[in-house]
Design a protein that fits this description.
The protein has 299 residues and is an alpha+beta fold. 64% of the residues lie in helices and 12% in strands. The chain has a 4-stranded mixed sheet.
């Protein structure tokens, strides 16, 4: 006896990013681009290469926000045609691109910080402080917008980390400006840049495995496949389970497919209920067979 059963159970997870947050992010993108222009002008007027470098870094962060907004918009499109799972994974791709940008920005700041330590630069401390105060306010507000969703959304987390690093950077530049104005200590600029660079590189490296696992269709870290098999085998009339695959359709939508050895197809809803309740697996494709299939089904 063979049968096929597909369950499409769509739940609203706390990982969803609401439309209001997306609109605020787009506004943040525009404001950050204007800030970058202001920093470039301020850097030219003050003769500060550091401020121009911060402007370039801020431009990179603004682009990361734009990427996130585009990814969220694409991710909310409904499934159609050959994209039968929908477009939710666009958010993961956006998060991956932002992660790469974060790493590159961190490496850039690392080189910049080392260069500033070796060759300290004289700059107009007062102008730097005022522009950095404005940058800090904008970075803090943008970080606040993305913070709420950063705990459960990789794309939003990358945006948050970008802007948090910018906020720390602005504080560092303020401290640098004050040290330059009051004490003539120019090397503090390079030290602050190195601290920010290490933070950005660390965050990108830590976040890399999770995003890559989703893109590679790996099972979520919190789900043990052997434990899933044992739970399925505990259902009445289930003699065996094979050809089992677990993967993430999106960051918070887990799918499973498997072959079940059983004499009755009524086990399907029971198995689906177990998977949903114990493992939060809401998309199941279960094929029931009266005996283990002879065909090769390792994939």
């Amino acid at each position: 006896m063979e049968g096929h059963h597909h369950e499409h159970i769509h739940c609203h997870h706390h990982g969803e990013v609401n439309e209001k947050s997306v609109k605020l992010l787009f506004l943040s993108f525009i404001i950050n681009m204007l800030l970058s222009v202001a920093e470039i002008v301020g850097g030219i007027v003050s003769g500060s290469v550091a401020l121009i470098g911060d402007a370039l870094h801020n431009t990179s962060d603004a682009l990361s926000i734009l990427i996130a907004v585009i990814a969220f918009k694409i991710g909310h499109k409904k499934a159609c045609g050959k994209y039968t799972y929908g477009f939710k994974r666009a958010e993961i791709i956006g998060g991956f691109v932002n992660l790469i940008l974060l790493f590159i920005s961190g490496c850039y700041l690392l080189v910049e910080g080392i260069e500033r330590l070796i060759f300290p630069q004289e700059i107009d401390g007062m102008l730097i402080v005022w522009i950095s105060v404005l940058a800090l306010i904008i970075d803090a507000l943008t970080a606040k917008i993305s913070h709420g969703d950063s705990h459960h959304n990789s794309n939003m987390k990358m945006v948050f980390v970008h802007n948090l690093a910018d906020a720390f950077g602005s504080i560092g530049v303020i401290v640098s400006g004050l040290c330059i104005m009051w004490f003539g200590i120019y090397c503090i600029d390079g030290i602050v840049a190195l601290l920010i660079a290490f933070y950005m590189i660390f965050q990108s490296v830590v976040s890399f495995p999770k995003i890559v696992n989703i893109l590679m269709n790996a099972a979520p870290d919190n789900i043990d496949i052997e434990e899933v098999k044992r739970a399925i085998l505990q259902v009445d009339n289930v003699k065996g389970v094979h050809h089992i695959h677990i993967w993430c359709i999106s960051e918070h939508n887990v799918a499973l497919e498997c072959h079940i050895e059983s004499g009755v197809s009524s086990v399907i809803p029971q198995i689906s209920a177990v998977l949903r309740e114990k493992f939060n697996i809401n998309h199941c494709n279960i094929q029931v067979e009266d005996q283990k299939c002879n065909e090769h089904c390792d994939l």
